[in-house]
Specification:
407 residues, two-stranded antiparallel sheet, 13 helices, 12 strands
């Protein structure tokens, strides 16, 4: 340990004596580690952000039965487009099928223009929901109330507005009991939802919730429904999904070998899809950035070979005074590794700063993970050891007598 500490001291002294050369040696490492840490921080931040967004949309302890499900290719989309619509009859069948299902909500989504007096907002998300919707998370009213069960069952033209819609249309007016026009049809406002913020720069408060029957009347009754199933016991989620699949297959008279003509989606399904996408992108980016580390390592090796040539007499003097080959190896290896690790520390700091700046000035979130610090410093330590080993061994093999005669 004493020899290692002494070697590090000598390395630091040599680095300090040649500041400019030291900076040039580790510049590649700094750039590479800065890029890696920034990418890791942004990917981690997006993972957490997307997870929260998916859970808020799909919900914990719920899954969805849809016509399309999760589509990942054009061929899958073309096959799914030939599937029959999911209907209200199937919603009622699921509700009565198993005690594992606490509630089943039907809904459709569409975009439409929403207007009040002279103001018009285009392409606003419209959600038509069945009367069970109040039993699911994500629906609230900060002002007024939610459409009640009777209004939904009787297809009353009432609506809950997202907070951004209310602010843009009504400004300083009270929106309650006012009539907005959705694609020209008057709808009475009964409530305004609590603000949910934005995701990737897109507002989550620009929506309208209305009774399912009203939405079907506005956008067409021959539409497929999305069924959201709330599981009585979230621990039995897989069992509940199997029950839903069995119920749908029986209602649609599918034979045992026929594939499902519907899709089942959970928050975990969406998260797995996101992880596979983000991991692929992350691996590609890390692979590209790692080239900088290799280039930085080659620069370190070349400059260390030059350092060995410059300090040949010093090596000869140390060996003539009793230094062993291992001592010489440690001296130069410590110098290359210490220099490389310093580059890693600087790169890690700059990487976190870059991620923080991106998070501050763009919609992209960032998250600092302790393991990413170890990744940045560890990678540069390995680069310093690997590319500094050959120059260190070459220095250790110098003959002391020839080295002392070196001019």
């Amino acid at each position: 340990m004493t020899r290692l500490i002494e070697a590090i001291k000598i390395a630091l002294a040599a680095i300090w004596a040649n500041k400019l050369r030291s900076v040039m040696m580790v510049l590649g490492n700094i750039v590479a580690v800065t890029s890696i840490i920034a990418v890791v921080s942004l990917v981690q931040g997006m993972n957490g952000y997307v997870s929260d967004a998916i859970i808020s949309q799909v919900g914990v302890g719920t899954f969805r039965v849809e016509r399309f499900g999760l589509i990942t290719s054009r061929e899958a989309f073309e096959r799914a487009a030939r599937r029959p619509n999911v209907t209200r009859a199937e919603q009622r069948a699921l509700q009565e099928w198993s005690p594992l299902f606490d509630s089943v909500m039907a809904e459709i989504g569409n975009s439409a223009n929403v207007a009040y007096r002279e103001k018009t907002l285009e392409s606003i998300q419209i959600r038509g929901v069945s009367e069970e919707y109040t039993e699911f998370a994500g629906f609230d009213a900060e002002l007024g109330r939610l459409p009640n069960r009777i209004e939904i069952e009787r297809h009353q033209p009432v609506a809950l507005l997202g907070s951004a819609i209310a602010e843009q249309l009504f400004t300083n007016r009270n929106p309650l009991d006012q009539f907005v026009r959705i694609d020209g049809h008057p709808i009475r406002v009964v409530g305004v939802s609590e603000s949910k913020g934005s995701m990737f720069g897109n507002s989550q408060d620009e929506f309208v919730v209305m009774p399912l029957g009203v939405a079907l009347r506005l956008f067409g009754s021959r539409r497929s429904l999305d069924l959201t199933v709330k599981v009585a016991d979230p621990a039995r989620m897989d069992e509940a999904m199997d029950e839903a699949r069995l119920a749908m297959r029986i209602r649609r008279h599918l034979r045992p070998k026929e594939p499902d003509d519907f899709g089942i989606v959970t928050s975990e399904t969406l998260m797995q899809f996101w992880r596979s996408f983000s991991q692929g992108a992350f691996t590609l980016l890390i692979g590209i950035v790692s080239v900088s580390l290799v280039v930085g390592g080659i620069v370190i090796m070349n400059i260390m070979l030059m350092v060995v040539s410059e300090r040949t007499r010093e090596v000869g003097l140390r060996k003539s005074l009793g230094a062993r080959r291992l001592d010489i190896v440690w001296q130069f290896l410590s110098e290359s590794t210490t220099l490389s690790v310093l580059g890693g520390v600087i790169g890690t700091t700059l990487g976190f700063a870059a991620a923080a700046l991106v998070a501050a000035f763009t919609p992209l979130p960032a998250s600092i993970s302790p393991w990413s610090v170890a990744l940045g410093v560890g990678m540069t330590a390995i680069v310093g050891l690997f590319f500094g080993l050959y120059p260190a061994i070459r220095a250790a093999r110098l003959d002391p007598i020839e080295a002392l005669h070196k001019e």
